[in-house]
Design brief:
The structure holds two protein chains of two kinds.
Chain A (H helix, E strand, L loop, with lengths): L3 H11 L6 H12 L7 H8 L3 H10 L11 E6 L2 H5 L2 H12 L12 E6 L11 E3 L2 E3 L4 H10 L3
Parallel strand pairs in A: 1-2
Antiparallel strand pairs in A: 1-3, 3-4
Chain B lengths: L18 E6 L2 E6 L4 H7 L25 E2 L18 E3 L3 H17 L6 H8 L26 E3 L9 H10 L4 E4 L6 E4 L15 H5 L5 E3 H6 L4 E6 L8 E7 L2 E7 L12 H5 L14 E2 L8 E2 L2 H19 L4 E5 L5 H14 L5 E3 L6 H10 L17 E5 L3 H4 L1 H12 L3 E5 L8 E2 L2 E2 L2 E3 L6 H14 L5 H7 L2 H11 L6 H8 L3 H13 L3 E5 L1 H4 L4 H14 L10 E3 L6 H6 L6 E2 L3 E2 L3 H11 L11 H10 L4 E5 L3 H4 L3 H9 L3 E6 L11 E4 L8 E4 L4 E5 L11 H11 L9 H11 L8 H7 L1 E3 L43 E6 L24 E4 L1 H6 L7 E5 L4 E8 L7 E5 L7 H4 L16 E7 L5 H12 L6
Parallel strand pairs in B: 1-4, 14-15, 14-25, 16-17, 16-21, 17-20, 21-22, 25-26, 26-27, 31-35, 32-34
Antiparallel strand pairs in B: 1-2, 3-4, 5-8, 6-7, 9-10, 10-11, 12-13, 12-27, 18-19, 23-24, 28-29, 29-30, 31-36, 32-35, 33-34, 33-36
Helix pairs in contact in B: 2-3, 8-25, 9-25, 9-26, 10-19, 13-16, 13-17, 13-19, 16-17, 22-24
The chains are: A alpha+beta, B alpha/beta.
């Protein structure tokens, strides 16, 4: 069950700020780990816009999740500079290691794997982000260490 | 008439005092400053291809087809988003432009390779001959069609993401039900949060379907029948907005109803009823043959017109011989044309020789007629609809326009989104109180029955705080009447604190709303049946007129006192003299001069004493003094209050003649049935809430073989009075001859101008959009004292809740039409709305069957728990006959006009597991009285 009261409190913090919807969506995602469908109407009501409008914003930004993510989120850069430095091989390795395809979450809810197109850290390619922390010049071995030690 | 193709200028019309001169393809154009190049070009017939632009919404600039070249400007700007400039020189065609357009078009086509539809017409227009990309690769051809809406489908594979549908839903309709989902190649149009159209907030107004340039959104019926080949411009027969429509036909069969851009009430917009729910007109339930029977339990016998009319006339004359001239009468219909109504009241006055004529306005807006005439001098609203675009403060009292007058509600919402302020005075949290991008500045949720206390308190604040417009009052109003009213209104009994105990609304809110109304600029009052259907309905109308006069809010654009009329021709049926005391044009039947003019024209003498009103007819029938009725298109057995009494009255008649499309509830008690014509068969005029007279043109031949006015004329002739016309326009000519406010009206004028607003005479040859401009019609504005007298219908321990009634968007009134359309998908039964608190204390959960009891009767409905209600007030609609909403309503009525007090009934509500006795009986009786012998 989604705690709608919690969502209402979050919405009340942002609803009177001009353009507050984006901030509110971040806060909802922070609270719930994703943007539960049940919270759309609360946001629509709070900002006095339509459910469709909220959905339009949520679906536009890849960073807004509409499903519960894994406990850890791994994001691998797929953009040109990282590709030139071997991110394709790294991505294949990570897929095998986590037994996940890009955009998937495992059944136990341990990991989510996502593609990213540039972290803005091209000079230190390839880049991987684990739970919000960026790691540069990551090799397959580095990744295994990252995961096994929980060094993130 | 061939198929009407309206010109799409691409971007909206701009208003400016400055004119800009520019050259487009060597031709000179003069347009108001701010106009787009696209519009300027299309106004001088220069063709610019485009997909995302349409003139009912703001420029968007996404399709990139409308590029032009401008001297001295780099690149190729989009003509839709580039405003004109003085002496600009524009080229709309060149090799460079053609190349770019073809390139862009080819990209569109690469995603839509199937060669049909309007997109390919556009491709042809820009000269694209082939699609080099083929059908391989990524495209959207395999998307699933959304078929959920009963009237239209959405096929995303044809969509080019121009967002015209999204913008139409936002800018034109104001519902915001659509959005663009996702981004890039994955983006698609989504209803709600990726829901089906039916499950979303979509109200099925049709604006998106009309806006779609690629037929992604398309009407199912058009897909079935095929493209229409000709159009007939006519007027919608649902609510009092009176939208203009183009009926589009293929080989004589109606394909669709398209809102007419030149319709002055709707400007090309529509709602689900007018746009889609018209096919009741071709429903199998329609009765096509006249029928007679001796007793109401006998089966109906189909007969020819001659026999039916002869039988009806004989019975009426027999009854008059036996029971006197005044023992018969009739009711005119606000659903019929002015011409049909005029002829029925003429029949009653000239052939029946009495004044026993009334109309269904009796039960809706009769207090409007009374109140506005007594104060301002005219029994009609003061403004034209477009005046709302100049209003700074909108006050909506006892009206729910988003459901009952949807097209005007869209216009109101547009003005509100532009920044106008909004005050809603209504017991319920209606759609206008809060909806996307609309929020009332003040919602005063008063208890039903306390309108007058509320309006007095508002006026009290205005007068005691010096917020009135004294100059206006001195110049335009009766100063003696004003003085008396002033002394009354400033009395502390009318202060916000004093009335708090009646209205339940805080004094602070009342004060704030009053200040906003008086000082916020142009203030316009819009009201509905929540004002009129009360024991003090007329008093409230007067109270609003007093307030508007005191603040100088009548006689200008953006102001006024505006009734939102419920039915298509309720204004017209009142104008046409459907009252027992008034001849056409609201002139007393007791006035010798007025009567004389009709007597000379009609060649008869007219009774000078007023006849029965509808409630009087029922009372007299129960008493046995009133024996026969001719009811034109009105279902009194369902619509009028206190059903038990109405049924007793109808059951007591010796002869009831019903003229209708269907065997309605009233027809269960009838002895003669004349099949009527639908608006698609009628030739005549309707008059809407803004006094606008619009033409209703026959789209198909009368399926009954007889125009309704002809039925009335033949009945008159069979009774010995010679009345005959060759056409409906002859009837209008007679109306114009006899009615000073209609002197200039003729079908010729209407055909030429599209529509006119009365008064339309030598003083105002082209009609009068806004009334009382240079002073009030009655001379000086008349302030009348409006003392608050609480209704006798009060809550008690036995009946602790107040029931109020209203309408919903998808159904219309008694539902005779809309119940016979696919609109039932949205509303197939009436439910009782109840606040969670009231439900909980009674052990009611959502979906429970509940018994609603008043002192008049009881009925059973399903409960819906909602916070739109305030505690202590319950609400239902009355669209379904088996709901029996009017079993519970009482005999109370407005003191001046006998308009029933539908809006206040003290009730108790409790869970139940069976239907009411009346409902059980209703089902049996309903079948046994509707049998037709083959």
């Amino acid at each position: 069950m989604v705690d709608l009261e919690k969502a209402k409190i979050v919405v009340s913090r942002f609803k009177d700020i001009e353009g507050g919807l984006l901030e509110c969506l971040h806060a909802i995602q922070h609270s719930f780990g994703y943007i539960p469908k049940e919270t759309l109407d609360i946001m629509a009501d709070g900002f006095n816009i339509s459910r469709a409008e909220v959905h339009g914003v949520v679906s536009y930004y890849h960073d807004f999740k509409t499903k519960q993510s894994g406990r850890k989120t791994v994001r691998v850069c797929q953009a040109e500079a990282c590709q030139a430095m071997g991110s394709r091989t790294l991505t294949d390795h990570i897929k095998k290691k986590l037994k996940l395809d890009l955009g998937e979450t495992d059944e136990k809810g341990d990991y989510s794997l996502e593609a990213v197109y540039c972290f803005g850290n091209c000079s230190l390619s390839p880049n991987v982000e684990v739970d919000g922390k960026l790691h540069a010049r990551v090799s397959s071995d580095d990744f295994d260490t990252l995961i096994s030690t929980g060094a993130e | 008439m061939a198929l009407i193709k309206e010109i799409d200028y691409g971007t909206p019309e701009k208003k400016s005092e400055n004119t800009v001169e520019l050259t487009i393809d060597g031709k000179t154009a003069y347009v108001p400053e701010g106009t787009s190049i696209m519009r300027a070009a299309r106004e001088i017939d220069a063709e610019i291809p485009s997909l995302c632009a349409t003139d009912c919404m703001n420029e968007y600039g996404s399709c990139r087809l409308c590029l032009v070249e401008i001297d001295g400007v780099r690149g190729t700007p989009a003509s839709c988003t580039t405003p004109v400039a003085q002496h600009m020189n524009v080229k709309t065609t060149s090799d460079r432009l053609t190349k770019i357009r073809r390139g862009i078009m080819e990209l569109y086509i690469s995603d839509h390779p199937d060669e049909d539809g309007p997109l390919h017409d556009m491709a042809e227009l820009v000269g694209l001959k082939e699609n080099r990309y083929g059908k391989e690769g990524h495209n959207h051809l395999k998307t699933i069609i959304d078929d959920s809406n009963p009237y239209f489908s959405f096929d995303a594979s044809k969509c080019i993401l121009c967002a015209r549908c999204v913008r139409a839903c936002e800018e034109v309709q104001g519902t915001f039900a659509l959005t663009v989902d996702g981004r890039g190649f994955d983006s698609k149009i989504s209803a709600g949060s990726d829901q089906s159209f039916l499950a979303s907030d979509c109200v099925s107004c049709g604006a998106c379907v009309q806006a779609c340039p690629t037929d992604s959104l398309f009407e199912k019926r058009t897909a079935e029948i095929g493209k229409p080949d000709h159009s007939v411009v006519t007027t919608c027969a649902y609510c009092g907005v009176g939208c203009g429509f183009k009926a589009e036909l293929k080989e004589g069969e109606v394909v669709r109803m398209m809102p007419w851009k030149d319709g002055q009430a709707n400007h090309g917009h529509s709602c689900v009823k007018g746009r889609f729910a018209w096919d009741y007109a071709i429903h199998k339930d329609r009765i096509l043959s006249p029928m007679i029977r001796d007793n109401i339990t006998d089966p109906w016998k189909k007969v020819g017109w001659d026999e039916a009319i002869e039988v009806a006339a004989q019975r009426l004359m027999d009854i008059q011989r036996k029971h006197g001239i005044k023992s018969i009468g009739g009711i005119t219909s606000s659903r019929c044309t002015n011409e049909e109504v005029f002829v029925v009241q003429k029949l009653i006055r000239a052939a029946f020789q009495n004044n026993n004529v009334d109309t269904c306005a009796r039960v809706c807006h009769s207090p409007t007629g009374y109140g506005l005439r007594e104060t301002l001098g005219t029994s009609a609203g003061t403004q034209t609809f477009d005046s709302v675009m100049d209003a700074d403060v909108l006050v909506v009292i006892g009206a729910n326009p988003t459901d009952a007058h949807p097209v005007f509600a869209s216009q109101m919402k547009r003005r509100l989104r532009e920044g106008a302020k909004l005050i809603v005075i209504d017991p319920r949290k209606t759609g206008l109180v809060k909806s996307p991008h609309i929020q009332a500045d003040y919602h005063l949720p008063l208890l039903p029955g306390t309108n007058v206390a509320m309006i007095n308190a508002i006026a009290h604040v205005v007068m005691t705080e010096g917020l009135m417009d004294q100059k206006y009052i001195d110049e335009r109003c009766d100063t003696e009447a004003f003085k008396q009213w002033h002394d009354f209104i400033v009395d502390p009994v009318n202060s916000p604190q004093s009335v708090e105990k009646y209205t339940g609304v805080s004094a602070d809110d009342i004060r704030a709303a009053a200040r906003l109304y008086a000082t916020g600029g142009n203030a316009a009052i819009y009201y509905g049946l929540g004002v009129t259907e009360h024991s003090q309905g007329s008093t409230m109308v007067i109270g609003m007129a007093n307030l508007a006069m005191a603040t100088g809010n009548i006689g200008f654009s953006g102001t006024g006192v505006n009734p939102l009329r419920g039915q298509n021709n309720v204004q017209g049926s009142c104008d046409m003299g459907s009252f027992p005391h008034e001849l056409p044009g609201y002139r007393p039947v007791s006035d010798d001069v007025v009567r004389g003019s009709f007597e000379r024209e009609w060649g008869v003498s007219i009774d000078e004493t007023p006849g029965y009103r509808i409630p009087g007819m029922f009372d007299a029938a129960v008493e046995g003094k009133y024996k026969a009725m001719y009811i034109q298109g009105e279902d009194v057995a369902q619509s009028d209050p206190n059903t038990h009494h109405v049924e007793a009255a109808l059951g007591a008649l010796d002869c009831l003649i019903v003229q209708d499309l269907f065997l309605n509830e009233t027809a269960r008690f009838a002895h003669v049935f004349f099949p009527g014509t639908s608006f698609l068969e009628k030739d005549g005029t309707f008059t809407n809430a803004e006094r606008r007279i619009s033409r209703v043109r026959p789209v198909m031949d009368a399926v009954t073989g007889m125009d309704e006015w002809e039925i009335s004329c033949r009945l008159g002739r069979a009774m010995g009075y010679d009345m005959a016309y060759n056409s409906a326009s002859e009837i209008m000519d007679e109306i114009a001859r006899l009615t000073p406010t209609f002197t200039n009206v003729s079908f010729d004028l209407l055909d030429q101008k599209g529509s006119v607003q009365w008064p339309c005479n030598e003083k105002a040859p082209e009609g009068t959009p806004i009334m009382h401009i240079d002073g009030f019609v009655r001379g000086k504005g008349n302030f009348i004292i409006t003392e608050y007298v609480p209704t006798t219908e009060r809550t008690t321990r036995k009946f602790p809740l107040i029931l109020t009634t209203g309408r919903i968007l998808s159904q219309y009134n008694v539902g005779a039409q809309t119940r016979r359309t696919k609109n039932n998908i949205w509303h197939d039964k009436d439910v009782l709305d109840i606040h969670p608190h009231d439900a909980e204390t009674r052990g009611i959960v959502a979906g429970d069957m509940v018994m609603i009891q008043s002192r008049m009767g009881e009925t059973v409905l399903e409960a819906r728990i909602t916070e739109r209600m305030q505690p202590g007030v319950v609400y239902t609609t009355f669209h379904m006959p088996e709901s029996g909403a009017n079993i519970i309503t009482t005999e109370n009525s407005d003191w001046a006009t006998e308009c029933p007090e539908y809006k206040v009934t003290a009730v108790q509500v409790r869970p139940t597991n069976h239907k009411s006795e009346w409902q059980e009986e209703f089902e049996k009786f309903s079948i046994s009285t509707r049998h037709i012998a083959e």
